[in-house]
Amino acid sequence: MLAPxxxxxxxxxxxxxxxxxxxxxxxxxxxxxxxxSISKSPAALAYIGVATSLxxxxxxxxxxxxxxxxxxxxxxxxxxxxxxxxxxxxxxxVAAGTPRLYELCLAGAVxxxxxxxxxxxxxALVPQLVPEAELIGANAIEQFVRPSAVQLAGPAxxxxxxxxxxxxxxxxxxxxxxxxxxxxxxxxxLLPDHQLAxxxxxxxxxxxxxxxxxxxxxxxxxxxxxxxxxxxxxxxFTYLLFIGPTYVLLPYIVRNSLHQGAGTYGAVLxxxxxGALIGAVVSGRRRQPRRAMVWIYVCWAVATxxxxxxxxxxxxxxxASAALVVNGAEAAGTVVWAxxxxxxxxxxxxxxxxxxxxxxxxxxxxxxxxxTAPVAHFLGARxxxxxxxVLGAVVTLAFLFVPGMRAGDGPAPAPASVGETLA
Length: 423
Description:
Layout: H1 8-38, H2 42-67, H3 72-96, H4 101-129, H5 135-164, H6 166-186, H7 208-223, H8 226-257, H9 262-284, H10 292-306, H11 308-312, H12 316-344, H13 347-361, H14 365-379, H15 381-399, H16 418-422
């Protein structure tokens, strides 16, 4: 599982990413506490979620097309620097006095925009740095490092940082983490040459017409593969049901129902990170499952059902137990999904396919955040979480039975030419 770490460029990529994800974990705690210090209503954090997710959804397809045309390394560097600047500005605003909610929303919008370009570029860059035989190890490392930083160490550090440095200092820590990531990624040496849709990653800026054509190529590619588009659609509806409630209502319950502080919220997220580590190791140490799609969907259904545990829990231990299962099962499925996608999709299409994955999967996230506050007002925070978990699990399993879905379990097809992609 650790073989990819012998490669210098992969180590640089993940050293920078790990530190920036650590900063993201701090940000999760800091922004929740800052939002609820402005307003005790769940709507406060929901607005920030909408502001962050909406530009990301709208720009992901463009980000994927750009990542298949220009240097993915450069995209990651500039995305990191953009987030560092806005977080430093947010830190200054918070330190200067009580910030207004719209300022947090504007910062979230910039962060979401940068992520729209960084996410597909990162997904497509990994196969350029490690051989195919090491992809499952590389993806297991991602599912190990990501929760270790953003869900385990990051939130734990965030709880301490909010208590000692206040949100202003916490936002400054996140800004510094993105600067460090940009430096690491910029030191990645010469990337291998890859022919992408008939041209190389030369750094030339493509014109609008060619970008539009390449986005359409990616959409046609996905449309012809049920295991891709049906999985993206499944995630769309599942995320609609549980992402908003989890993001908005979990800190709300910790603060207003259990009357605990930021440290408790960070600890609950940290236990979830431990679960993700366990799930990543379990998937990373075994061979690719023979029935990969079944494995993926069962894992994701278990993870979604466990969201109901947040609503049923009456203390911090119950919340942490639910977080352990949610994140562990999700990571176990995601390691296999990422590897399957990287093996079966040609690298020349991978940036676009990843962007379509992110775009379709997160398309209804703004609506999820927007609906959380009124639904929770009507049903109550706990009943909203229980309903989200149960309905989300049912929806996830239902998509496993879409005709043609398990074709993704078969052997990888030969790389398609551009002409075949357009057919």
